[in-house]
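Propose amino acids for all 380 sites.
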């Protein structure tokens, strides 16, 4: 199995910005009808917005992503989660496109979420934070765009949960974008997908340090539950071939006997993934965002395609051969709905042995496909 090639030099140092999209007396209203009086959005931008504002591209992140999609922060050489994809000469070429990426509402990386302080009580929301939906993410990001002076987007791009956002955006607000790139995503989770997330949530909810969601006020954190949830999820992000190639049945170095510890290299890997996750993600956001994915089902609305047929959007839908979390049939189902409505759709099933995580990797055919789709017929 060939290791993905490194990307060319990237965009360098970037800053994360924060913007409040609510005003006194004008709360943010959610799809459920609930409202939030204060909503702050964390976002980053790359490249330069042209004079007629026609080169704007929005990036929608996946479940555990954030606004830091490319480059690195001052004093921190950690590259953005899609750094191989965004930058000069890359699939989303910042010499050509002005790129915006923002953290999701309900998240924990600078945007208002369940661990934020409720301005009405002075304490963290916890489980009093209202349930959110994919369309709430889109509504917040449309408002962010307006605050940045962008009413219309050349393209909106996302993978996994990010792809769900792209699909919702194109269906509900087709007059605000020209192109939609939906990568390794689903329009309707299977029972198996819901089951994986359910186990992860139960690990968090049953952690004795959870304290009904108010763990921060108790000086605690449900580390055991959150790390197990991450370990469970991470198993679904790689293919069996990738696990075999990376680890096989290799014993962990230094183990000299059998027991119930970390005996195999793959166990060490999962343990590391769980531990690292604790430093950058919040258990409450994990609960809320996984639940969003469970309920996403846009085509259950018989009028789901009404707006986009009036304002056609060009779609690129892509899947990966070894992705069993959101396997190719998920993408084909999206394509069928769009084609039946007579919409222009390009579909690609891309060869990759790396599983669901393929959408985050430097794979030439994949990146070339996105690059060509963004530039096709464009004078920008």
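Proposal:
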């Amino acid at each position: 199995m060939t290791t993905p090639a490194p990307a060319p030099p990237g965009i360098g140092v970037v800053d994360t910005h924060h913007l409040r999209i609510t005003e006194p007396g004008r709360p943010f209203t959610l799809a459920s009808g609930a409202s939030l009086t204060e909503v702050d959005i964390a976002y980053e931008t790359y490249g330069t917005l042209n004079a007629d504002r026609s080169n704007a591209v929005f990036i929608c992140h996946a479940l555990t992503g954030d606004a830091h999609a490319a480059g690195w922060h001052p004093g921190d050489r950690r590259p953005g989660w899609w750094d191989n994809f965004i930058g000069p000469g890359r699939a989303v070429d910042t010499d050509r496109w002005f790129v915006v990426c923002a953290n999701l509402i309900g998240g924990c990386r600078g945007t208002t979420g369940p661990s934020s302080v409720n301005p009405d009580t002075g304490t963290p929301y916890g489980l009093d934070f209202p349930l959110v939906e994919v369309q709430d993410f889109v509504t917040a990001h449309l408002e962010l765009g307006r605050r940045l002076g962008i009413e219309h987007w050349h393209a909106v791009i996302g993978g996994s949960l990010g792809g769900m956002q792209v699909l919702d955006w194109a269906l509900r607000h087709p007059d605000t974008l020209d192109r939609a790139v939906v990568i390794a995503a689903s329009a309707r989770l299977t029972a198996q997908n819901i089951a994986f997330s359910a186990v992860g949530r139960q690990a968090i909810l049953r952690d004795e340090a959870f304290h009904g969601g108010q763990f921060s006020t108790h000086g605690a954190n449900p580390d055991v539950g959150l790390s197990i949830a991450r370990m469970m999820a991470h198993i679904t992000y790689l293919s069996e071939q990738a696990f075999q190639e990376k680890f096989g049945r290799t014993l962990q170095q230094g183990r000299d006997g059998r027991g119930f510890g970390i005996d195999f290299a793959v166990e060490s890997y999962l343990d590391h993934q769980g531990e690292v996750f604790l430093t950058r993600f919040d258990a409450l956001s994990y609960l809320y965002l996984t639940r969003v994915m469970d309920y996403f089902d846009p085509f259950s609305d018989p009028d789901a395609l009404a707006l986009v047929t009036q304002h056609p959007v060009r779609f690129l839908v892509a899947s990966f051969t070894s992705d069993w979390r959101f396997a190719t049939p998920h993408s084909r189902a999206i394509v069928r709905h769009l084609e039946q409505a007579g919409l222009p759709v390009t579909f690609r099933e891309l060869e990759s042995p790396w599983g669901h995580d393929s959408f985050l990797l430097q794979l030439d055919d994949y990146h070339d496909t996105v690059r060509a789709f963004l530039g096709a017929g464009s004078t920008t």
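The chain has a mean pLDDT of 95. The chain is about 30% helix and 15% strand.
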